[in-house]
Amino acid sequence: MWGYGARHDALSQGMLDPLFADALVVSGSGRKLAIVGLDLGRTPSERSLERINHRLRAAGIEFSFIAASHTHHGPVLELSNEPGKGQGRFDAALRYYQQLEDAIVEAVLEAAGKLEPAALEAAVVPVEGFNRNRHSKLEPKPVDGDLGILRVVGAAGKPIAVIVNFAAHPTLLPASRLQFSADWVGAMKQALRERTGAHVLFLQGASGDLSAAPAGGQDYRAFGESLAQRTLAVMDTLEPVSRSAASLEVREERFRFRSRVDFANPLLRALYAKAFFPELIANYLDEYKDGIQPRLTVVLLNGEIGFVGVSGEVFCAHAIRLKQRARLRALFFAGCTNGYHQYFPTIEAVAEGGYGADPAVSPVEIGAGERLMDAALVWLYRMAGRIRD
Q1: Distance (Å, whole) CA 144 – CA 74
Q2: Strands, DSSP E only, in 157-215?
Q3: pLDDT band at 241 (very low <50, low <70, confident <90, very high)
Q4: What is the pLDDT of residues 49-86, one digit of tens each?
Q5: Are 329 and 241 in contact (CB under 8 A)?
Q6: Is residue 92 in a domain?
Q7: Would you give the DSSP letter of residue 117?
């Protein structure tokens, strides 16, 4: 199970609630984009993503925005079919990876087969009391309380899909519970599906330093239902995005940063293996041998609606500043998107130290998050025609 190092290689003892892949396909400007929300701790491994995207491109879907909810009660996805890296010891997990790839592709292709003219309605509004900063000891602590909602409405006026974007770790279930679960995100999606009749996708925000803040001892189900109720209230205020013709701009790029950790040091490798488990660390070392290479994905819909995805756990101040600087009608920020490269703290957070900012779980060089945000901002302005080379 993925999410807590203290579990080491403990196996799941069953399923508390199902894990879903929810897919929406958007077409515009002669391009197609798949937006996928996964009830997983992270997105599939780099090799799996390559195979998934190859199959989607063969079906005419050029771009993908695959985002994980970051539940800590999902399966480990880092293993590979090689000796010492999972083969022979975790074969059930390796079989699952193929099923996972097939399910994601199937969900996207099913969505693509149902394309129809649609209108977009969007809003990003601040909500209070649903999340808190778990890292900083300095006041005022940064907290991104934005609740982002994009509703896709069909020609008959019926909602096709709803995208919800919020930043809070799905960690309301205890680590000791060894059952698969989507945590509060699953409860929220289920409540919204029942009340709207639409497909519901969730994009986890910049929650690297943010936890859920349940009121009055709420369990994960009650918290999810409370956030669903708040989402429904916001949906009553949504207004259409006016545009004579649909437009879709997408850019994706991988960056390369130095590591703050010497993964070639055998003592450090042994310590990591003990803290987690050897097969997991062997795969991490493979991915990080040439530096930390996160992926940045930027989307602009109809010149007004932005999506920014980063392949890791991003501290909230990054998203807060980017949304202020982008000057868009709505900007949806998603962490754990198109890969996973651990934590991206701000420079201030690194100076403060603590979990999520220290090299043990944030090996990327200092300032990497700021560089990613600057790149995203430039791309958004270029897509909107406000910056020209």
Answers
A1: 25
A2: 159-166, 199-204, 210-212
A3: confident
A4: 999 999 999 999 999 999 999 999 999 999 999 999 99
A5: yes
A6: yes
A7: -
Own/partner contacts of 326-330, CB < 8 Å, gap of 24 or more, are 326/377, 326/380, 326/381, 328/304, 328/380, 328/384, 329/122, 329/241, 329/304, 329/305, 330/122, 330/123, 330/124, 330/148, 330/150, 330/304, 330/305, 330/306
Is 364 among the domain residues?
Answer: yes
Q: Is the pLDDT of residue 374 over 90?
A: yes
Strand 31-38 relative to strand 63-68: parallel, antiparallel, unpaired? parallel
Q: 């754990």: which residue's tokens?
A: 336
Q: Residue 193: CB partners within 8 Å, gap ≥ 6?
A: 199, 200
Instruction: State both tokens at 67.
Output: 């985002």
To the question of pTM greater than 0.90 for the whole model, the response is yes
DSSP letters, 53-97, are: HHHHHHTT--EEEEEE---SSB-----BSSTTTBTTTSHHHHHHH
Asked if 260 contacts 359 with a C-beta cutoff of 8 angstroms, the reply is yes
Query: What is the distance of C-alpha 363 from the center of its chain?
Result: 19
> Are 348 and 370 in contact, with CB atoms under 8 Å apart?
no
In this structure, which amino acid lies at residue 326?
A
In a domain, 389, yes or no: no
Mind listing the pLDDT tens digit for each residue in 131-147?
Answer: 999 999 999 999 999 99
**Residue bearing tokens 């868009």:** 328
What is the three-class DSSP state of 204?
strand
Asked whether residue 190 is assigned to any structural domain, the reply reads: yes
- Tens digits of residue pLDDT in 86-128: 999 999 999 999 999 999 999 999 999 999 999 999 999 999 9
- Supply the range of the domain harboring residue 53: 5-383
Residue ranges of the alpha helices (H) in the chain?
46-58, 91-112, 183-196, 220-235, 266-275, 278-288, 316-326, 347-352, 368-383
24-39 residue pLDDT tens = 999 999 999 999 999 9
How many structural domains comprise the chain?
Answer: 1
Retrieve residue 129's tokens. Answer: 């009391």
DSSP assignment of 218-285 equals: --HHHHHHHHHHHHHHHHTT-EE---SS--EEEEEEE--B-BSS-TT-HHHHHHHHHHS-HHHHHHHH
